[in-house]
Amino acid sequence: METKKCSECGEVKPLNESYKSPYTKEHRRNQCKECWKKYYQNYFKNPEKVKRKNYLYNKRRYKNGERNPLGTNTKCTCYLGIYKGEAIAEKILKYLYNNVKRMPTCYSGYDFICDNIKIDVKTSSLHFKKTYVNKFRTMNTCKNNNTDIFLCIGYDNRKDLNIKHIWLFPKELGNYRQSINIHDSEKYLQKFKRYEITEKVKYIIKKE
Ligand SMILES: [Zn+2]
After folding, report:
1. Does pTM top 0.85 for this prediction?
2. Do 28 and 101 lie in a common domain?
3. 160 falls within a domain
4. Residues 10-39: pLDDT tens digits?
5. Nearest to residue 146, comparing CAs of 100, 203, 107?
6. How far is ligand 1, taken at its centre, from the CA of residue 7, in Å?
7. Cα(78) to centroid of ligand 1, in Å?
8. From ligand 1's centre to the CA of 64, what distance in Å?
9. 32 CA from centroid of ligand 1 (Å)
10. CA of residue 19 to ligand 1 center, whole Å
């Protein structure tokens, strides 16, 4: 039986004692179910306190060398999302807008302000779920109401990180739902065609 050590309580438990996650090696969360539930409940009671705790935890890990700096660890979700995604996003936005201001990392709500328009950057590579026929990309909009536009970057896969699609979604498309799932089928892509700007910024992507 496969087991996993909980990063919170330190107990070694069977794999199914932790929730599924696409981001870890075993596709399971690093915390056991019990610890994750506690974390989640605390978060909603006091998000600022939890954020502060996470910040200090990660800072300590950087110091101890347990965690690579952002931009060198290609397996980390931060690499795909914040580091790589926002770097290309900045280039695209500078092409589309005159005044592009990048917000500090982890700024709440949006990542850029461009000509007074708030822009939240979302990235996803293609992934697959047994319940769906097609592969799809998930843009985690997280019901974000504090942005005007979602700039969504769709990669082919996590390894090559070739950009296949770029969409500009109005906030109304994402601010009431946790995520926008874009299936990789002709019919589905056609549905989102009017938001797609891939052709328009083709030249910028090619230079990557
Ligand atoms: Zn635990």
Report:
1. no
2. no
3. yes
4. 999 999 999 988 777 788 899 999 999 998
5. 107
6. 7
7. 24
8. 22
9. 4
10. 11
